[in-house]
Write a structure and sequence with these properties.
The protein has helices spanning 3-7, 42-45, 48-59, 137-140, 143-150, 152-166, 175-179, 181-194, 226-237, 268-276, 347-357, 380-397, 417-426, 448-464, 480-490, 503-506, 512-523, 539-542, 547-560, 579-589, 594-602; strands at 200-204, 248-256, 263-266, 282-292, 295-304, 310-320, 326-335, 361-365, 404-409, 432-436, 467-471, 499-501, 532-535, 565-566. By secondary structure, it is α/β, with parallel strands linked by helices. The protein has an eight-stranded parallel β-sheet. The two termini are 36 Å apart.
Length: 609
């Protein structure tokens, strides 16, 4: 295409369409000189032949009545692939057509989903790799991010696979699928579900400079008695070494954190083997200890010597041996994973995350509520920080007005809650508010002052026409009484705006009682629930692997009504799972039918219509 025509792409809008067909595949080639040998072909110099062989042999399907063709090709077949009847065969789920809608308004052509194989299906593609298929207009407008996301090799392999397949070159059928009907059926089911893509992520966050780097600080270091200090220094020096065995007692017990289940191992030799597998360049810094006669306990952090960054926490039980030397009797190291909000998360990063999953729009919930608390008093510095975070979120969302919608973050118990809510609506143009009862220690059961404060916020939001998203879980026991108090004391204060319960039942870990209260009230036609909605953020992780809980959640969703259930991921860009991974986990674990999943994926909250 001519450069002049390409420049016009950015001036064009994205068309609304039920389906887009007939667009030729785009092949992205990275123009870069390789290091071929004198006998290299295009395929061997770029490693394209290996990738195509793997792709065709492991993930493809034969044309009808075409026998398997192995690497030892029969006479009459030239090259690695044999051309049969013209056919286009694809990786299941990689190149979805736009889903047909049942009486739905037109929507944009979806971006391709992340490839996530079902349980029992082992495709030769890493599950964290996003493989783009033939792009529609929505994909073609961002070829650079497409290539970066998929990786150079994957893009080249798929591009040439399209060319070869279109020319009639048929890949070999994956033997496991041919020989195992159950595996083939599971693969077909996975491929069918992979074509279901949510339109909106109704529960997302970005994090500004005022909210980043909020990892809780460790207690200050303590001064150890000289023998214990010497032992700890030597243990840090020998990290990654096979010579640490002499630091342990004969019957020492150590957690092997290299094992997925964190097994305890016993004995000096086993302890030395564990320590030898740790990284070098570590220092153990104690922030607590106890010593009583011949026994002691030390706890603290494991630091990277060069960066001084804490990499793990440790807890050690020490004991004197017969010679009076202190030795390690028990040791447990717990890795410190990257703090999800240690760095700024921008709207650009969120949009890239959405593109990877094929999500059209997202609701960005400001995290300014982090700075609140359970009392009405506050400092001017705190309110300035809250304002700054809401301002930053609004400015970031304004960079992508067709993709993102901003909600104001507030602590409902602070005296500035209502003025800040009004400012967010009038000056920043935010569409709603986000509150977190557990984080701000809101008590709507036994504290009338808290109830009144929250009611004032609900009323102000209703007056401003702002939707409400609330993490209604409270600290401690969270159950039926909390949901009933929410319905009786708070919901009537905002009768005219959508109220969205975060995480389906209001919290992270699954709680059956509050969800039952909400579902029963809706099923009974309770007029207070007229504008009550629920998002699915972390619904599957909240079930903690319980199939019974997942079945119960699915049944409650049906009782609530699919039209009230909104997809949300709560998958930040900085840490944890990606949006596409969260959606893949939900669509394959939550026991809903394809039609039910499609209805949820198509739902758009009233405040976005």
């Amino acid at each position: 295409m001519a450069p002049y025509a390409r420049r016009l792409f950015h001036q064009m809008g994205i068309p609304d369409a039920d389906e887009i067909d007939g667009i030729p595949p785009a092949v992205a080639l990275q123009q870069q000189r390789g290091t071929p040998a004198t006998r290299s072909s295009v395929g061997s110099a770029t490693t394209l032949s290996n990738l195509l062989r793997m792709l065709y042999a492991r993930a493809g399907d034969d044309p009808p009545a075409q026998p398997i063709i192995y690497a030892e090709a029969p006479p009459g077949c030239t090259g690695t692939f044999c051309c049969a009847t013209p056919a286009l065969t694809t990786i299941p789920g990689a190149w979805p057509n736009a889903a047909r809608r049942r009486s739905r308004p037109p929507r944009r052509a979806p971006l391709p989903p992340m490839i996530m194989p079902p349980e029992g299906i082992n495709l030769p593609i890493r599950t964290r790799t996003s493989i783009p298929g033939p792009p529609g207009l929505a994909v073609a407008r961002d070829a650079e991010s497409l290539t970066r996301r998929a990786g150079r090799e994957a893009t080249l392999a798929l591009g040439f696979a399209i060319i070869l397949a279109t020319a009639g070159c048929a890949p070999a059928t994956r033997p496991a699928a041919r020989e195992n009907p159950d595996a083939a059926a599971a693969q077909q089911d996975w491929a069918r579900r992979a074509r279901i893509i949510p339109r909106v992520d109704h529960h997302q966050h970005i994090v500004g400079p005022t909210a980043a780097s909020r990892r809780p600080a460790a207690p200050p270091p303590v001064t150890l008695p000289a023998p214990l200090d010497s032992l700890l220094r030597e243990r840090g020096r020998l990290s990654g070494s096979a010579d640490a065995g002499d630091l342990y007692t004969e019957d020492a017990q150590v957690v092997d954190r290299a094992e997925e289940t964190f097994h305890w191992v016993q004995g000096r030799e086993a302890a030395a083997a564990v320590v030898s597998g740790y990284p070098t360049g570590r220092e153990l810094v104690a922030n607590a200890f106890f010593m009583d006669g011949a026994v002691a306990h030390v706890a603290g952090e494991v630091l990277n010597v060069q960066t001084r960054r804490p990499m793990a926490t440790f807890s050690m039980g020490l004991r004197r041996d017969a010679q009076g030397r202190w030795r390690i009797a028990t040791e447990m190291l717990t890795p410190i994973f990257e703090w999800p909000f240690e760095r700024v998360i921008t709207a650009d990063a969120l949009v890239a995350n959405m593109n990877e999953a094929g999500i059209e729009r997202a609701v960005v919930l400001s995290v300014a509520y982090w700075f609140g608390g359970p009392s009405p008093s506050y400092s001017e510095e705190e309110y300035a920080t809250v304002r700054a975070e809401n301002d930053w979120t609004a400015a970031q969302v304004a960079r992508h007005p067709d993709r993102l919608v901003a909600f104001c973050g507030i602590s409902p118990l602070r005296d500035y809650a209502v003025p800040e809510l009004r400012r967010c609506a009038r000056e920043l143009g935010m569409k709603g508010i986000k509150m977190h009862f557990r984080g701000d220690e809101v008590d709507i059961l036994d504290n009338p002052q808290h109830v009144e404060k929250v009611r004032q916020v609900f009323q102000a939001a209703n007056d401003q026409g702002m939707a409400i998203v609330v993490h209604s879980e409270a600290r401690g026991a969270y159950g039926r009484a909390h949901a009933e108090a929410f319905l009786n004391r708070l919901l009537p204060a905002a009768p005219d705006v959508p109220v969205q319960i975060a995480h389906l039942w209001g919290g992270n870990q699954y709680r059956a009682e509050p969800l039952a209260v909400y579902a029963d009230a809706i099923a009974a036609g309770d007029p207070r629930t007229r504008n009550l909605y629920f998002d699915l953020a972390e619904a599957v992780p909240g079930a903690q692997g319980s199939d019974a809980a997942l079945r119960e959640i699915a049944q409650r969703i049906r009782q609530i009504g699919l039209d009230r259930v909104l997809y949300g991921s709560d998958a930040t860009t900085a840490g944890g799972a990606r949006i596409a991974q969260r959606w893949a986990q939900l669509r394959h674990r939550l026991p809903l039918t394809d039609a039910e999943l499609q209805d949820i994926a198509d739902n758009v909250a009233p405040y976005l219509r």
